[in-house]
Input
Amino acid sequence: MILAATACAALLGCAASGQSGEPETPPASPPPSSPPAEPAPVAPTSFADADALLSALESSAATLRDFRSPVTVETVDDVTGDIERRLGQVVLEQRAGEPASRRFAVVLEKYVDPTGRMDERPVRYLYADGWLTEADFRERTLQRRQLARPGEAYDPLKPGEGPVPLPIGQRAEEVRSRFRVVLAGAPTHPALAAMRDGKRPLVGLVLEPRPGMADRDLRSATVWYDARTLAPCGVEAMRAQGRTTVILRDPLMNAGLDDAQRALLDLAAGATDGWRVDERPLPPAPSGPSPAPSGRTP
Output
């Protein structure tokens, strides 16, 4: 389970401002009636090299059924020095071993501007059945992009492939083909450093894009995992114009989703009635065999 880390800058858009009429999203909480979580896989707390960690992550990804975590996304503009933060949660569900079946939601509810002022700016990003949806509750706009046609094999989280990468569920060889990969030293962001020095030991991979990567803005990304469970914990991405840090504050894999968490994977019926809608399907597939989609940008 690896990320390319376009590191949520494309995923989150880092736009959206002002107030919203969206009902408050119920906070994530442990599912009260879900079956007990399976014991987390026991992983070594250190690895000989990047290949050893990649192999362990791939094995862990084969059992992935669900993932959830509160998330903080921090962007730093290297020109102005401005820092912006967005707070929310991530929820993912799929059939074990079938990345094409995955659905996920990134729900960003709060925005902290460079002065430290916080307000409500709900934006929701959804992916299911080949479509990426962005719902902006302040602007009352709905943008839908088709990334894969029915029956096409497509993973929007695949390194260098889709516009919405998260460090979840990738194959080792796919990562190596797109990045030069080495083990990371220590996290530089204070929140990740505190996580590592506390009760959650971290292990990381530094990813440097190979020539030809679709995301030319990305200079490098370091992806951090809980060294014991291999749950993704964060990303530190260096971009052409700044830095993006994604902090998954309490990541849980295969712990089950409750009804409120599963509801985040869809927009409630009627929630976007009367909104402006921009929908962009893919053109019809060419006749005859065609290669699997790769590096597609909506």
